[in-house]
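Please review the protein record below. Tell me whether the encoded fold seems credible here:
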Amino acid sequence: MSNSPVFVDVILPLPLKQLFTYSIPKPLEKSVTTGKRVIVQFGRRKIYAAIIHTIHYKKPADYETKDILSVLDDGPIVNESQLKLWQWIADYYMCSLGEVFKAALPSGLKLESETKVIYNAENIKNETFTSTESLVLDFLEKTNIAKVNDIALALNKKDALPVIKSLIDKKAVILEEKLKESYKPRTETYIGLHESITTEKQLNEAFDSLKKAHRQLDVLISFIQLSGKFSKKEPAEVSRQGLIKKTGANHSIIQSLIKKNILTEYKKTASRLDYSSTDVNDAKQLSIAQDQAHQAIQKHFNEKQVVLLHGVTSSGKTEIYIQLIQEQINQGKQVLYLLPEIALTAQIINRLKSVFGNRVGIYHSKFNDGERVEVYQNVLKSTKENHYDIILGVRSSLFLPFSNLGLIIIDEEHENTYKQYDPAPRYNARDMAIVLAQIHQAKVLLGTATPSIESYFNAKTDKYGLVELNSRFQEIKLPEIILSDTLKARKKKQMKSHFSPVLLDNIKESLDNNEQIILFQNRRGFAPFLECETCGWIPYCTHCDVSMTYHKQHNELVCHYCGYTIKNPKVCKACGNTSLSTRGFGTEKVEDEIKIFFPDAKVKRMDLDSTRSKYAYENIISGFEQGKIDILIGTQMVSKGLDFDNVALVGILNADNMLNYPDFRAFERSYQLMAQVSGRAGRKNKQGKVIIQTSHPEHPILQFVLDNKYQEMYKSQLLERKNFNYPPFCRLIYISIKHKKADVVDKSSNFLANNLKKIFGKRVLGPESPVIGRIQNMYIKKILIKIERQRSFQKAKKLLDEQIIQLVTTDSFKTIQISIDVDPV
């Protein structure tokens, strides 16, 4: 047997149940290492970049191996710790390693081929072609090579494949797989003196030759000044853009100097990341309460891996985080600081950079692909200059290639946005972070003012350490909370649209005092739906079983589930009447009406629609911080950890929507949202005020919010969960069955549920239609499995997997789609 490995098992970016084996050609044997990317052919034509998982000598018994085509990387781009994490994700969340691979790497590092159609001029002379085929050939004659989609666009057809297949049979075209690479290093052009000018005498001769070319002379003089050539020991590099900015010259003047062999230009790889130096200050001194909490966390870390910091809003948790980060940095460790929303990074990054400078990097989906690749490479090559010791990011940051992780901070740990929904892997970033920390032997700090029931239960049962911070920084009082009874106000005809008199009066008072206001409505758009006043007709999405939301800004009805959009109808499609009215209200309508009530106020809206651009969050938040906005209207984005000095009033416009949502976590989430958004009021100078509009002011959850009674909320919810067997007393698995035909969904879901009930008994609930039973033309049924904590969860998942395989291998059900959500939130 040769000493050299001959086979590799690779992870392909495909939802395959197992790894795939390739052979290693002799010339590539020495360059093959676990974690590197290799180019492989999979299937008849497709080419992918795969990750080497294992190197071995065992030839597969069931298929002939293909050779890997090339090795892409000098060193591994996925380390052993990442592969361990990927395997845990695939096992725990019941998905494939390929799906984890697709989620884990930035798109620029995932290469796959695309099919190109090539014009084959030699074989078209003796063939006859249909008119459609002739159109394709005319198009290809001009372009020579084209993507399938380009041909479809040229034909104005959704599917061009039948035509292309016919042309392949006639040998008029051929298909070729070309590897597409989305990431290219950014380069910048620099200017230097020509190699013939090495002395000051030669430089003076160049000056003399330009006496009549004044603009060229000015550019050369400016270049010498900027570079310090002949005057500095180490001359500075001068970029072409910098020279143009300094002189106001155009490209042609610089090109003339290059042609005269006076200047030369060269390219250098330039980072897309901002490494500019910033002023660094010492961390703020902790208050007595903060210092006690800090010491308690350190003490717990001596015994436990995970600590929960339960601190009321504005208690100064961020300053404690900074102290803990500094301790890790001093030990040469890396720190991951997780946030639930991209919006929060805008404020937190400024605070972290003021202490740690450009040692802090950001990673989230608003970055373009090139930036994400470069952050990934920065963390991977942690010994290079300008490396990041601290990463601030959202859930996808967990996939970065950390090598020396010491601490993971999960701020606002209760937030459901830490859960990935679609596509797979459907992971919970909080739980995944704990596993990542175990792999690195690091610590985890969960921070929040409103812990999730599960985390608080783990802390109370001594699984996690628990540290409580019950007073606000500088002893500022928690906000005064007022419940405004909208039912009573409507009966008395006191409501002005969706605003109670007490809310409007307090908004006016705050504006008169030059104070800021946040208004919270957890629904975007102008109105949830339109309704005909005559017959009650409501426009529904043609692809989903849901009413379409009216967006006034574009005068459109939009489905928030599939994105289907139509212009606002002027007449009822059922009875032809023109009286169509909006029902309910979203953030867009709140913005519209608040501007009518307070025309002089500067109003801004922060929701998904208004924050689609890269810097939208940052611009809105900095504008509010600087006092350029008086009233900020938003969805749950405004509830999460933002810190504004001058907010005196928070208005929650509709508490009932949250409380009435059909979910076992509805009361817990309602408490968390209202407590969190309330915490934005009165954070620095004085006690703030919160007005909650509701038609049920006596509701127990509202009373808990009113008196800031988290413990009572926790106890009441824990009792309900225990009585009805919900987390933390069991684990949940949701199985979604989807198909274009309702009867196929019904039959397949009943088939699966009946088989599961034979194994799990009463632990299986369903199948049931979800609240929205059809999305994107796919009918949906859901099955819920509850597994007690003391039972083997791994065994339960194995039994479930066997039943799913039995289902999808049944002839009648081969076309159904199944998705599994472990630990749904």
User: Anything to note?
Assistant: The first helix runs from residue 80 to 92. The longest strand covers residues 46-56. The chain has a mean pLDDT of 90.
